[in-house]
Amino acid sequence: MIYEFCAENVTLLEKAMQAGARRIELCDNLAVGGTTPSYGVTKAAVELAANYDTTIMTMIRPRGGDFVYN
Fold first, then answer.
1. Which residues of 9-42 are buried (b: 16+ CB within 10 A; e: fewer)?
2. For 7-44, what is each residue's pLDDT tens digit?
3. What's the Cα-to-Cα distance from 42 to each of 5, 26, 59, 60, 67, rounded to whole Å?
4. Which of 25, 26, 37, 63 has a 20 to 30 A CA-CA distance from 47?
5. Residue 53: CB partners within 8 Å, gap ≥ 6?
6. d(Cα 15, Cα 52) in Å, to the nearest integer?
């Protein structure tokens, strides 16, 4: 079983990986359903995850709300 952790910053990533998370969904603004995180947050998360054999999945979403774009 793969344990996944949803994070909007790198503050808790190391603890999550130490606790067994092997897949991280990285996003920003969870209060609005999640948006794309900054380049800096993404880079830091990828560098940290390399130490734990953990996959980083980054949400690509320019705005909160639904997933319908016209």
1. ebeebeebbeeebbebbbbbeeeeebbbbeeebb
2. 888 998 999 999 999 999 999 999 998 999 999 999 99
3. 15, 7, 10, 11, 22
4. 63
5. 22
6. 11
